[in-house]
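Progress note, project year one: complex with iron/sulfur cluster.
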Amino acid sequence: MVEQNDNRAVYEVACSPHAREEINTAGIMLDVLIALIPLVLAGFFVFGVAALRQILYAVLSAWVAESLFNWMRGKPFSLKDGSAAITGVILALSLPATAPWYVAVLGAVVGIGIGKAIFGGLGYNLFNPAMVGRAFVMIAFPSLMGASAYVLPNSTVDALTSATPLTLLKMEGVLTGLRALFLGTTNGSIGETSALACLIGGIYLCMRRTASWQIPVAMLGTMAAVSALAVSFNLLDVLRELAAGAALFGAFFIATDPVTSPVTPKGRWVFGVIVGLFVMVLRKLSGYPEGVMFAVLLANAVTPLINRWTIPTPVGGPVPVRK
Amino acid sequence: MNATLNFPVKGTFARGVHPADGKGLAADRPIEVLPAVSQIVIALQQHTGAPCQAVVVPKQQVRLGEKIGDAEAFISAPVHAAVNGVVGRQSVVTLPNARHVKMIPITAEGEQLEGRALYDEVLGGEWPIEKLEEWTPQAIAERVRDAGIVGLGGAAFPTSVKLVRNEKKPVDVLLLNGCECEPYLTADCRIMIEAARGIVAGARIAAKACGAKDIVVAIENNKPQAIEAMKTAAEGTPVQVAAVETKYPMGGEKQTVLAVTGRIIPTGGLPLDVGVVVINVGTALAVARAILRDGNLTHRVVTVTGAGVHTPKNLLVPVGATYRALIECCGGLLPNAARIVSGGPMMGFTVGSLDVPVTKGTSGILALTDQDVRTSEETQCIRCGRCVDVCPLNLIPTRLALAARQKEWDVAKRYHLMACMECGCCAYACPAGIPLVQLIRMGKVQMPRK
Ligand code: SF4
Ligand code: SF4
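Model obtained:
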């Protein structure tokens, strides 16, 4: 097999390094989708086919919107990186199972269009697209997205017959059992009800290094601290605060969106703390029972500043000034 | 093990990457001597520093080891003939680092030192250092310069400059770099196995020159044979062997010094600033040969390897032999060879043709295939932070690269662009396939200096 091919006059010339880790953007996005599987399953068990339908609407619309906006901007199609699908799934998981189809569709289109495309597409967006979409439908259709929309008193689906745990707590002072919160047999947005599913998916993400572990730890830690110091110094109450609503879902899947969170290690801590603080402020002081969405959007807005304030010092100190 | 060292050895540094090491291809192949070549090409600037001027004229007869180029400058090193032969007309050659430099061709003529005799002269035999008594530190440094010795690890910085005593910056540690953290390369590993005593002798000579009390050889723990051989050779001498973690870029000066001594070299500074002199194990061997055998730096060991080469080997070659001659000695390239790299895959330079001469800094010739290179379409930065998580210098590579691309020099400066050592960890780890190092390098060149 000795073959001389040095008659090839010129060999490839390129910049180092000449080796690459076996990993690409699509692989990372696929990882996120894999991590979302437990949440989708939990949503299906609690809310039945309605959950899957909601996801289907949102993902399809996200795809269509992504293709459409790319076409309008004369960009190549970018569905294969999977980021539009993630936006769709996360948006759907943050909606009530009861919302009509056009809520998911509009949310996805606005999320992709205003949340992402107008900033220049993946990597350039300032705000989490799924949360932009959700904020839009929440303001556009308050009656379909507000606390009361979650409840269908005569539903055959058990969970739907009572209000969400956070609403129950806020409006009526009713506590939901930790066990129910943990397994997810409560009312709420499709993906948020089961703490267990969120933990499984979230820990998978962190272990794969696809999501930074600092953000969820900082966010949940802050929530726990505020809850313990300002609300109730009782372990069960603190755990309930974390397990109810979208705290875990948000901590692992929404706040960790790499594009819209800081890139510096210290910045990730700061970001998590800010989200956690806002969530508690909104939960306890605002009219809304839940605050994850607004908290994430607010923190997204200050991400560029956080980056700037947390530039690490190089090993060996700053570059000396030449004289 | 390190009982006599004045500091604890941590053996690692923060961050870095673990690329597939590819060393299996050549690690177990004993060093072979390249059959005599008919012509060599000696570049007049093979080192960091001032170029040499020719001190020979065309048609002049030269002997192996005879000086053919020299310079006045402090940071420089002379070059020598690596064969017996006749000098040709001076011309220009392009080195792998894209520098066009003057060169002197020499056509081999008459008897040559080759085969076993050459091996024994450069690598083999005993290395008694009794003679060292007669040498003053000053004399050693001068002889090292005269022998044309530069760092053989790749950077090719003149070794005498490191060994000269500096009143203001006393040295207490001499660190021998035997990490060889670049994947695929095995030349240093082989000389540690085959010429351990020569390296230990060279280390003691260099330590006398620079005044170091502690002498440590740092070797990555993926080379147990080399560690064993060096320990055996170091027995009964002041030389210590430290096994350090296998992690790229452990062999980078800043990382080795940190991993072994715990000292942090200031950005823009030298090991000397923290009392350390670092020399490569191959350089130490060259020092031993210069002092104990009166030999100049005319030969070195080069690993020729990669999936694109027929039979990977470690070769003892004259400086100035062409890459083509080395590759032919290894059975030639396979049809799938796509990229020829001088040095290792993480920091090496590609060469466009095989008619490039081996220089003092050539540690390996690597023939990579398309599969190895894994070129992928570049996609948008998703700010995943993987580049940040691996940067050994604690920089934010994504910011540096994008600022360089956009020519936002204030951002680049704020994120410490000039601190980057171009190790390549960030580009290695980037899922979006962004040529981070290329952009950063461009930025460093283009950024206005103030
Ligand atoms: S690794 Fe690549 S994609 Fe990730 S933040 Fe760095 S440059 Fe961006
Ligand atoms: S090349 Fe520069 S920025 Fe990239 S990892 Fe190495 S030191 Fe850090």
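Residues B 381-387, 397-398, 429-432, 434, 436 surround iron/sulfur cluster (ligand 1) (CB under 6 Å).
Confidence is low (pLDDT under 50) at residues 1-7 of chain A.
No further modelling is planned for this target in the current period.
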